[in-house]
Specification:
- By secondary structure, the protein is an alpha/beta fold.
- The chain has one domain.
- Helices cover 37% and strands 15% of the residues.
- The chain contains seven helices and seven strands.
- The termini are far apart.
């Protein structure tokens, strides 16, 4: 049965900026200009008004920083797998950086509620639909719940494509894509079928983004 809930677009408050996130942003700006150069294409597309969802393929542990950097107006709340939380310090660190801890192998309704809460409170929600790091193919394997989150939230979905793992003395390129339309799918009803259709739409968008980046590099 279709989920006819109202999109979670009514903002109840704006999230405050945190010193730890600000420090991480400053360090990233230095790192991505020097040791691990990152070049962004169409970064202006990340200037959306919140709330919105930003998605990306996943290649390394630095990806949240890579994705978050061009979103200058907001701090991004990322979904992260519970395996990253090994002890109290990492739990404090990651939650201080707004991470929502999720169990990738089970239906995690608490994480779903946390995602909806983040959107209602005017945040930018960051999701890696592949669920874990993939080095072969892009968006070939995605987590089923991502489409439902995107459709239930009713907010814009902004894709970013990272062409390679950020590492020292290597240039990484990031293509910021155009917002992926979801209104027609929501009109059909939020259910498993429309969520799967959205994931196919996301996969196709990443194919186009790869081609567009390759063309930009050749110029």
């Amino acid at each position: 049965m279709a989920d006819t809930k109202t999109p979670a677009t009514a903002v109840t408050k704006r999230p405050a900026r945190t010193p730890l996130y600000t420090a991480a942003r400053v360090l990233a700006a230095v790192l991505f200009r020097t040791l691990c150069p990152v070049k962004y294409y169409h970064a202006e597309r990340a200037g959306l008004d919140a709330p919105f969802i930003v998605i990306s393929n996943h290649l390394s542990g630095l990806d949240p920083i890579v994705v978050g950097k061009p979103i200058k107006r907001y701090e991004v709340t990322f979904l992260g797998k519970k395996e990253l939380v090994g002890n109290r310090f990492t739990h404090w660190l990651l939650t201080s950086l707004h991470m929502i801890i999720v169990d990738r192998h089970n239906s995690d309704m608490e994480a779903m509620r946390a995602c909806m809460k983040a959107v209602r409170e005017g945040e930018v929600l960051g999701i890696f639909p592949e669920g874990t790091r993939h080095h072969e193919g892009v968006m070939e394997h995605t987590e089923a719940g991502v489409g439902l989150i995107a459709l239930r939230s009713g907010v814009p979905v902004l894709p970013m494509y990272i062409d390679s793992r950020a590492r020292p003395f290597h240039r990484t390129r990031v293509w910021v894509g155009e917002v992926i339309p979801t209104e027609d799918l929501r009109a059909e009803g939020v259910n498993r079928q429309t969520a799967e259709q959205l994931m196919e739409r996301i996969k196709a968008a990443y194919g186009r983004m790869q081609e567009e980046l390759a063309e930009a590099i050749r110029r």
